[in-house]
Amino acid sequence: MTTKPFALCVNLVLFDQHGHVLVLKRSSSCKTNASKWELPGGKIEAGESFDKALEREILEETGFTVAIHTAAGTAMQETEENRIVHLVMIGTILSGGLSISKEHDECKWADIMEIQGLDKADWFDEYARIFMSGIPGPESE
């Protein structure tokens, strides 16, 4: 039996001043999870540390420079090529203005109840079901 290799993606939970979380809707032209909602983030490039990859991905996808604070959980995704582990972190915005990349069609700041009702990427659905009810808000940092 041939098993698929693992790949690592990093994602970030970002809160606004009202405790809402930034979620992005993937473009309808994306190869995986087209038109599904997810947390910002992405793949780690060769030779890149996961924190630098996460900072780069967040800047590319949202226009924000961020500080990364703590781990917030994991989720799994399986594609045709890989088994992807999503490492989810919590961070805060340091600077920048919201400007989403071509990878995404929409963005919104959503509360936990709204996130539960979104049509989410498979990995984000798993993550939200298992971990999001326990995520501390920005006031606990």
UniProtKB/TrEMBL annotation:
The keyword S-adenosyl-L-methionine does not apply. One of its GO terms (molecular function) is hydrolase activity. It comes from Methanospirillum stamsii. The keyword Hydrolase applies. Its cofactor is Mg(2+). The lineage of its organism: Archaea, Methanobacteriati, Methanobacteriota, Stenosarchaea group, Methanomicrobia. This is NUDIX hydrolase. Pfam families: NUDIX. Residues 5-132 form the Nudix hydrolase domain. Keywords: Hydrolase. InterPro entries: Nudix_hydrolase, NUDIX_hydrolase-like_dom_sf, NUDIX_hydrolase_CS, NUDIX_hydrolase_dom.
